[in-house]
Amino acid sequence: MAAGDLENQAELEEKTRLINQVLELQHTLEDLSARVDAVKEENLKLKSENQVLGQYIENLMSASSVFQTTDTKTKRK
């Protein structure tokens, strides 16, 4: 084999390695992007659930006499 052929072979192997590395990184990026989308969706769902629970708790507190404000002057008499 000539020196030029060895150089071309080494260059070809390096290009192949770099292409494979780029493809692997692209797949990783796609996976991470999908995960970010899933987390955003879950976050929105949890925010909505928290709002519903917050409103429910607020309604319970307003309906309960334990949480109603009292007039301390009338209680002391």
Compile the SSE list and pairings.
Layout: H1 3-63, H2 72-76
How far do the termini sit from each other? Answer: 111 Å
Largest sheet: none
The number of E-state strands comes to 0
The gross shape turns out to be rod-shaped
Number of helices: 2
State mean pLDDT (0 to 100 scale). Answer: 89
Which H/E pattern describes the elements? Answer: HH
User: Which spans of ≥5 residues are poorly predicted at pLDDT below 50?
Assistant: none
Strand content: under 5%
Structural class: mainly alpha
CA radius of gyration: 33 Å
Please bin the fraction of helical residues.
over 70%
Condensed summary:
The chain has 77 residues and is mainly α. It contains 2 helices and no strands.
Report on the structure:
InterPro entries: SCOC. It is a peripheral membrane protein. This is Short coiled-coil protein. Positive regulator of amino acid starvation-induced autophagy. With 77 residues, the protein is mainly α. 86% of the residues lie in helices and 0% in strands. The protein has helices spanning 3-63, 72-76. The longest helix is centred in the middle third of the chain and has 61 residues, at 3-63. It starts with a helix and ends with a helix. The mean pLDDT is 89.
